[in-house]
Amino acid sequence: MDRYSIIDKKFKREIVLLKSYPCAWGKCSFCDYIEDNTEDPRQMIDVNRDVLSNVDGRYKRLEVINSGSVFEIDRETLNLIKKISDELSIEELVFEAHWMYRNRLDEIREFFPKQNIFFKTGIETFDDNFRNKILKKGILYDDLSEVYTKFDSVCLMVGIKGQTKDMIRRDIELALKYFKRATINVFNDNSTDIKRDEKLVRWFLEEFSSLKDENKVEVLVNITDFGVGEL
Ligand code: SF4
After folding, report:
1. Which residues line ligand 1 (CB under 6 A)?
2. Distances from the Cα of 101 to the Cαs of 25, 72, 78, 91, 120, in angstroms?
3. For residue 231, what pLDDT band results from cuts at 50, 70 and 90?
4. What is the number of the ligand 1 atom nearest to the C-alpha of 68?
């Protein structure tokens, strides 16, 4: 599995896929990448030390993903990220956090006082019913401002059976309007019961082909398009 990559197009950064404790939410119906999680702290730090040794700080921005939330990364690894970031004068750290941690984000900011922290969250869709009933995300809010005042960026998922074109259009419109950045993941079938809608994917890739020129948005047609993970 590739765990280190350099993204040199939009939002230039180094990216690492670290091993962490199991995702505390762990209920999303489309997710099987939590299988990378472990309960063994020795295994975590051994893998993570090796992966983090690749970081050279070339873009002063490091994204850390871990098949879960930053809060599930062990303390020894967090200390190592801090040490490397300080030594390489990294200015911005990008982390993911599930909605359940929305009121704890400052803990991470306080832990990394020298870096700006940029938070992403996997909202997947702004359609409440699809997000919670089908995708089982556990993200309930009354007003979108509750999301965009906490998180800088959202990850959207497109191309799932049951999704509609209108849903996808609205998701992209809201992501562009209210968030600094967005990552759009095209769904690929995996070991879960959630299935890809090929027709919808083809429509999306054609209808939104201009997103490749939109600086705020990254479209991942394959889950490994950031150069980390495995198919
Ligand atoms: S929060 Fe993320 S890692 Fe956890 S189950 Fe959902 S998609 Fe998977």
Report:
1. 23, 25-28, 31, 34, 67-68, 98, 122
2. 10, 11, 17, 23, 12
3. low
4. 3
pLDDT at 90: 98
Mind listing the domains of the chain with CATH numbers? 4-220 (3.20.20.70)
pLDDT at 103: 98
Token digits for 200? 């919808």
Q: Summarize pLDDT for 19-41 with one digit per residue, the tens.
A: 999 999 999 999 998 888 999 99
Q: Is the overall model pTM greater than 0.90, yes or no? A: yes
Contact residues for 32 (Cβ-Cβ < 8 A; gap 6+): 190, 191, 192
The 3-state DSSP composition of the chain as helix, strand, coil percent (nearest 5) reads 35, 20, 45
Take residue 122 and report the two structure tokens written for it: 């996997």
CA of 162 to the centre of ligand 1 (A): 20
Cα(211) to ligand 1 centroid in Å equals 25
